Amino acid sequence: SVYFSSLKLSPYSNTLYIGNQSGRLFKIMSPNSNPSTYEIGSSSFPTANISSIDIGENDDEILITFSNYGVSSIWFSGNGGEDWNEKEGNLPDMPVRWGILHNQDTNYSLIATEIGIWETNNFLSENVNWYPSNNGIGNVRVDMLSIRSDNMVLAASHGRGLFYGIFENINALLGDINNDNT
User: Fold this and answer.
1) DSSP 120-164
2) Which pLDDT does position 182 carry in this prediction?
């Protein structure tokens, strides 16, 4: 009886991931014919809205975000949902509306939050360090991020329009989503 709030079709297999508004995560294999559904969330997840799901370099790497105050907002599994690690690190308490993993190196991640875009280059470490990446976009609510195969990222803000830039995983400039070297 709880609405679904996020979904992601794997780019690697015929698998659909669905999250709901009470923090439950499901994996549906072969959703088009003879589907098999498994709950792959964790009892450690908050009872909160799953705002996004992303897949890393393969189906084993899953990132989910929660868009509520007062909860751990970022979770990652490196083994297809069997085990989960909280990746909030030094992030302030704010809703995380979207998260993406770099498609060539999962150690790099971007998140869309209530106060702009944040990034990390040590996502796989135990102590994740998040940095604001708001140059040009400012401290505005960002609702969605999308990344293409050529690493072009599109950020949809609330009230300031769309922004884009290249998300490089080598020699990335922190705070430079527009790639204008400032």
Assistant:
1) ES-TTSSS---EE--TTT-S--EEEEEE-TT-EEEEEESSS-EEE
2) 52
CA distance 29 to 38: 8
Other C-beta atoms closer than 10 Å to the C-beta of 130 total 22
Q: Is the pTM of this model over 0.85?
A: yes
- Span 63-121, pLDDT tens digits: 999 999 999 999 999 999 999 999 999 999 999 999 999 988 999 999 999 999 999 99
Query: Bridge-partner residues for 7, per DSSP?
Result: 18
Beta-sheet strand order (sheet of 131-132): 96-101, 109-113, 116-120, 131-132
Percentages helix, strand, coil for the chain (3-state, rounded to 5) are 0, 40, 60
